[in-house]
């Protein structure tokens, strides 16, 4: 696949952003390439296009499949596995958010619940410290509950809510 300068810049930037979000640069670049690609690509083609080691491509493809951001495809007449990225941006956003919720938020909520429970049984804990732990637990729980409700809305409704922006305050009062 031949990359244009704009495509190269997009892929390089996506790799930089991925590393800032805690995702391997190669994983992010492969995701960006597959997102831009007009057709499914096989691992050798990905490695050649991005000038990345074939073993790194294989590992990265497995990680992207684990995040459910790419899908394995077969092409008639070709025995190799081909890969295609999710092109629906809302689906991609919700997939990433769900994965991060499971990997990061769920364990945090478990720990916070235990800290609040343990802290409530400790005589030496300052009341303000316990309150702050409870406030954090309540905040993250509310945020998680809000996300659960929002993520179940139809895509069209999500787009309308996003476009409303701050105007949504009119509906809930000031």
From TrEMBL:
Residue ranges constituting the HTH marR-type domain according to the UniProt record: 22-80
InterPro entries under this entry?
HTH-GbsR_regulator (IPR052362), HTH_MarR-typ (IPR000835), MJ1563 (IPR026282), WH-like_DNA-bd_sf (IPR036388), WH_DNA-bd_sf (IPR036390)
| A GO molecular-function descriptor | DNA binding
Stored Pfam families: MarR_2
Keywords assigned: DNA-binding, Transcription, Transcription regulation
Q: What protein family does this chain belong to?
A: Belongs to the GbsR family.
| Record's protein name | HTH-type transcriptional regulator
* Organism of derivation: Kiloniella litopenaei
Q: What superkingdom heads the lineage?
A: Bacteria
